[in-house]
């Protein structure tokens, strides 16, 4: 495979902020605290972590949108600070959300416009646009205005836009956020096809199933540092020696969740909101029967199904992230981040 497509060594990024008017105070916030990893050419590499972990900041340093406070990074052998132009010629960047497209233009006209910006030769544009529309399954809909597209179709068009100049490395920053399950499946197939064709892909996501299905290797980042790195199978070992109890509930309070977490033998607790229901996931030591204690701690709460199962990649992820945090995932301010991690 030759040299690595991406190499990060000791990457750090610190933000300075100022608060107060009469007696202003300056403080520094370390978003990324020394990140090291490499991505091989043609590899589909996942960067996972909760909100605020440093995923997007890391990607923006690698794709030249942010200058590192310290450390170095190279993409396709070029330094991201000293050789910015060479890096930008070789990368594409796709982010989640609805920004970055012109709603009143058709998909084809959007791609024509961005092809000009990317410097795609005019003689190649028609062929390249047709190839990409086929790749992202928008052939037949390319003359419709983007304002009528579903969110999944918009995201596939974002990917086509990022590939117009045939980049060697594609950064996908939470491309399936807010996309319905059917559209997310189509997006995963598109990303898988890209990697199979030889494009190096660095993917950030909250979704464990997406990472498990797609990624050759995964790095888990929390508190601005890489906490674990390996194949999905290797990361699952972080949940070895544990068993999992899932409880569907309605109206669980923070105090009750904290009481569950304090029970003997319990290692991790998390809570995910799904429509009107709450899904509480409890990891405990193998051989310790915690079900009676959990149900007693939830006394007075309306309960649905209660299921015991073996740990998954998501359970290993929760264990890794919680080790980097002073509080269990699912409590207070962490709940919003945890709610973005469905099974």
From TrEMBL:
Compartments in which it is found: Cell membrane
Topological category with respect to the lipid bilayer: Peripheral membrane protein
Signal peptide residue numbers: none
Keyword field: Antibiotic resistance, ATP-binding, Nucleotide-binding, Transport
Domain ABC transporter intervals: 9-248
Gene3D superfamilies (alphabetical): P-loop containing nucleotide triphosphate hydrolases (3.40.50.300)
A Pfam family it matches: ABC_tran
Lineage top rank: taxon: Bacteria
Xref: InterPro entries: AAA+_ATPase (IPR003593), ABC_transporter-like_ATP-bd (IPR003439), ABC_transporter_ATP-binding (IPR050763), P-loop_NTPase (IPR027417)
Main subcellular location of this protein, as a coarse class: membrane
One term of GO molecular function: ATP binding
Protein name: ABC transporter ATP-binding protein
Organism the protein comes from: Micromonospora zhanjiangensis
Lineage summary: Bacteria, Bacillati, Actinomycetota, Actinomycetes, Micromonosporales
């Amino acid at each position: 495979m030759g040299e690595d497509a991406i190499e990060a060594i000791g990457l750090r990024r610190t933000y300075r902020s100022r608060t107060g008017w009469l007696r202003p105070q300056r403080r520094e916030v370390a978003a990324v605290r020394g990140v090291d990893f490499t991505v091989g050419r043609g590899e589909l590499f996942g960067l996972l972590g909760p909100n605020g972990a440093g995923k997007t900041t890391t990607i923006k340093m690698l794709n030249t949108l942010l200058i590192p406070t310290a450390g170095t990074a190279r993409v396709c052998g070029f330094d991201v600070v000293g050789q910015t132009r060479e890096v930008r010629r070789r990368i594409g960047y796709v982010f989640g959300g609805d920004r970055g497209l012109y709603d009143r233009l058709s998909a084809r006209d959007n791609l024509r416009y961005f092809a000009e910006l990317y410097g795609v030769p005019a003689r190649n544009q028609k062929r390249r646009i047709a190839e990409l529309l086929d790749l992202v399954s928008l052939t037949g809909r390319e003359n419709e205005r983007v304002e009528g597209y579903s969110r999944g179709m918009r995201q596939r068009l974002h990917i086509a836009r990022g590939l117009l100049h045939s980049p060697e490395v594609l950064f996908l920053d939470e491309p399936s956020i807010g996309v319905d399950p059917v559209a997310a499946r189509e997006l995963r197939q598109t990303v898988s096809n890209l990697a199979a064709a030889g494009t190096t892909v660095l993917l950030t996501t909250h979704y464990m199933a997406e990472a498990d299905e797609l990624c050759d290797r995964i790095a888990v980042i929390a508190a601005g540092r890489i906490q674990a790195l390996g194949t999905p199978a290797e990361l699952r070992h972080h949940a070895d020696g544990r068993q999992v109890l899932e409880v569907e509930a309605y109206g669980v309070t923070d105090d009750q969740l904290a009481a569950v977490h304090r029970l003997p033998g319990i290692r991790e607790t998390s809570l995910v909101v799904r429509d009107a229901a709450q899904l509480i996931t409890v990891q405990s030591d193998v051989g310790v029967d915690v079900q009676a204690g959990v149900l007693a701690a939830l006394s007075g709460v309306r309960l649905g199904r209660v299921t015991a199962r073996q740990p998954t990649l998501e359970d290993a992820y929760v264990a890794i992230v919680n080790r980097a945090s002073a509080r269990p995932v699912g409590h207070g301010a962490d709940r919003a981040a945890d709610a973005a991690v469905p099974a």
